[in-house]
């Protein structure tokens, strides 16, 4: 009588363990995306939203090149839910490197480009960033709802 009870319990336990392993596997696969993709997004710049250039530049989106060669981003677009669109000029992102697209104004430097806007793009209460190829094909997207720190990790 005890043997009949033990076998179904052992089978149920091993099935539950296998099920939990299967559930966790796809999550790890998502963190290792290949190609050009969205990384971390600072959608709510730290401090008070006073529209200063420093505050605007503290709002940014990372675009990561997870390939083994540089990628030319000319013509790529970054869009939000309200139709605000940033279009890359000629800009190479090296293999394994990241470029931040800041909302405000400044001179383009290695790893940093600027939207040159005087107002915020990303909604603190929820929005969706989209990275689109010059052909119009969606490369990646990342959405969020309000959180305590104003960042979203899209890796």
TrEMBL record:
Per the UniProt entry, the signal peptide is 1-29
Which PROSITE patterns does this one have?
Answer: LTD
Key words of the record? Signal
What range(s) does the LTD domain occupy? 27-146
Designated name of the protein: Lamin tail domain-containing protein
């Amino acid at each position: 009588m005890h043997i009949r009870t033990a076998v179904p319990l052992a089978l149920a336990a091993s099935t539950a363990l296998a099920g939990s392993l299967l559930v966790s596997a796809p999550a790890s696969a998502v963190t290792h995306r290949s190609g050009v993709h969205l990384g971390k997004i600072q959608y709510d710049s730290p401090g008070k939203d006073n529209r200063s250039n420093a505050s605007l530049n503290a709002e940014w989106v990372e675009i990561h090149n997870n390939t083994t060669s540089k990628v030319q981003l000319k013509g790529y677009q970054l869009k939000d839910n309200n139709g605000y669109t940033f279009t890359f000029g000629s800009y190479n992102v090296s293999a394994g490197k990241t470029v931040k697209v800041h909302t405000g104004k400044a001179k383009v430097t290695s790893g940093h480009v600027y939207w040159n806007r005087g107002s915020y793009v990303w909604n603190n209460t929820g929005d969706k960033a989209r990275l689109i190829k010059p052909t119009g094909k969606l490369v990646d997207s990342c959405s969020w709802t309000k959180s305590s720190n104003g960042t979203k990790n899209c890796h």
